[in-house]
């Protein structure tokens, strides 16, 4: 006799798996690992109060952008008659190319820019919010999951996930200088970042395989 979960429990498990996948995508593309080094570098000569002000402004600007993106994507993609498959293919390609580009960049690292002698709050807008926090891959991930979200319950949970990621970013900015001064801190970030980029590329391929399978292009 085969054993099978009841339909309600099965839907709950699937919803949990989707949320887990969304959190992983958001952590990789919007999360703190890629933000620590730029923040520490750009605010190297800033006093603690200015660092906190820059961190808070980056947090609020990033949170505003990702929430608006989630709300607009959930509504407008239907209005514009753009299918979920089209969004999934486009998002998967963006995530794959961005991940591969970052993996390739690990072999030929770019020297970080010199920190500004007189840092100001404007750093929070550029480059800390855009493009260091809200990356092109992050935008693609938000649109992909927002379009897949089932109306308000799903969108609300999506916004909660995005808020949690932005809170992690704020904590990372508060501790960025301490992390970078720890022996091996920069190397550890580079290793973790490379693993996350590999995960991102693999997840992007998985998205593409699933949508092509659903469309009948692949049979697995």
Summarize the structure.
With 220 residues, the protein is mostly helical. It has helices at residues 7-30, 33-42, 48-79, 84-107, 125-133, 136-148, 151-174, 176-181, 185-214.
Structural notes for this entry:
- With 220 residues, the chain is mainly alpha-helical.
- It has one domain (47-107, 119-213).
- The protein contains nine helices and no strands.
The low-pLDDT segments are 1-17
Helix-strand pattern, N to C?
Answer: HHHHHHHHH
Task: Name the overall outline.
Answer: globular
Q: Give the beta-strand count.
A: 0
Number of helices in the DSSP assignment: 9
Assembly status = single chain
**Kindly state the mean pLDDT as a whole number?**
84
**Estimated helix fraction:** over 70%
- Largest β-sheet summary: none
Would you tell me the structural class of the helices and strands? mainly alpha
Radius of gyration: 19 Å
Provide the number of structural domains.
1
Strand content: under 5%
Determine the N-to-C terminus distance: 25 Å
